[in-house]
Amino acid sequence: MAAITNQSRFGKIAWPVLAWLVALIFFFPIFWMVLTSFKTDADAVKPEFLFSFTPTLENYTNMTDNYDYWKFALNSVITATFATLFALVVGVPCAYAMAFNPSRHTKDVLMWMLSTKMLPAAAVLYPMTFLTKNFLGIYDTHFLIILVLCLINLPIAIWMLFTYFKEIPKEILEAAKMDGVTTWGEIRDILIPLAWGGIASTALLTFIFCWNEAYWTVRLTTTEAATLSKLIEGNRAPEGLFFGRLSAVSTAAVMPIVVLGWFCQKQLVQGLTFGAVK
Predict the structure, then answer these.
(1) How many whole angstroms separate alpha carbon 278 and alpha carbon 124?
(2) Are the CB atoms for 176 and 185 separated by under 8 Å?
(3) Dihedral angle at the C-alpha atoms of 78, 80, 82, 84, nearest 10 degrees?
(4) I need a labelling partner for 228 at 20 to 30 A (CA). Which of 12, 22, 70, 221 fits?
(5) How far apart are CA 216 and CA 154, in angstroms?
(6) What integer best gives the mean pLDDT of the chain?
(7) Residues 6+ apart with CB under 8 A from 112
(8) Structural domains of the chain, with CATH
(9) How far is Cα 173 from Cα 182, in angstroms, rounded to an integer?
(10) Range among 16-25, 71-80, 183-192, 240-249 rated most confident
(11) How far is Cα 108 from Cα 114, in angstroms, rounded to an integer?
C-alpha cells in the first residue's frame, strides 16, 4: 500500500514537471525569436545570452515605416479568411454526402483526396507559375492565392468534417426527411447546429494552415497579394540575413495566430477530441 501511495505521489509530481519541461522546449524558439526582435542586427549575431543587450524598437519601426507591414498583414487576413470560408462551403456538402450517403467508393475517394497532400509542391510549381502568368493572367492576385490555399487545405477539411459528421446519428436526418425537410434544410437546420463544434475546429485549423502557408504565397506573389510570409522572406539579402528585422517581422506574423489559438484552445481541443483523432 505504501509503495502504491509513493508511486502515485511521484506521478503527481513527475508528470506535471515533464509536461512543463516539454512545453518550455517547444516555447523556447518563440521566446528567443521575440527576444531577438528587440536587438539590433549587430547584437543579434553576437553570442550574448538573454538580457545582456540594450533593447530597441528599431526593428518594429523599420518594419512599419519601410516595409508597409499593414498591407502584408491585411493580405494575410483576406486570403486566409476567404480560403477558409470557401473550404467550408465546399467541404461541408462533400463531407455530408460521404458521411450519410456513402457508396462503395467513398473510402477510395477519401484516400485519394488525402494522397494529394503527398504531392511535392515543387513538382507543380513551374506549370502553376507558367499558366497563371501567361494564360490566365491571375498571377499575384488575391483570387489565385485564395484558390490555391483553399484547394491545398480542402482534403484535410473534408476528412475532419467527415469524421465529425459520422458521430451524428443518421436516424436524426432520416426523421427530418420523413417530415419533408429538404437536403439543404438538413444541412442548415440540423447538421450544422449539431456539428458546430467540429465545424468551428475545422475552420480554425484551416485558417491557421492558410495563415502559415509560405511556399505558395512566396512564389505566386510579388507585391499586390503578398502576405506576411513574403515580408519575412524579403528580409534576406546577398550579404546575409538581417536577424533582428527578421525576428521582428516573424514575431508580428506569429503573434495573431498564437493569440487566436490561446483564446480558442478549449474549442480546438474539444473539436479534435470529438472526432478527428478517433
Answers:
(1) 33
(2) yes
(3) -160
(4) 22
(5) 15
(6) 84
(7) none
(8) 68-276 (1.10.3720.10)
(9) 10
(10) 71-80
(11) 10
Say which residues have a Cβ less than 8 Å from residue 237's Cβ, sequence separation at least 6.
none
> What per-residue confidence (pLDDT) applies to 56?
86
Side chain identity, residue 20: W
Q: Hey, what's the cell of 1?
A: 500500500
- The three cell numbers locating residue 58: 528599431
The answer to whether 275 touches 198, Cβ cutoff 8 Å, is yes
How far apart CA 150 and CA 206 sit, in angstroms, is: 9
Residues 53/36, Cβ–Cβ less than 8 Å? no
Q: Please count the other Cβ atoms lying within 10 Å of the Cβ belonging to residue 15.
A: 10
Q: How confident is the model at residue 118 (pLDDT cuts 50, 70, 90)?
A: confident
Partnered with residue 241 across adjacent β-strands are: 236
Give 92's DSSP letter.
H
Q: Which residue has the cell 487576413?
A: 77
C-alpha grid cell, residue 26: 517547444
pLDDT in tens, 192-247: 888 888 888 899 889 999 999 999 999 999 888 999 988 888 776 656 677 888 88
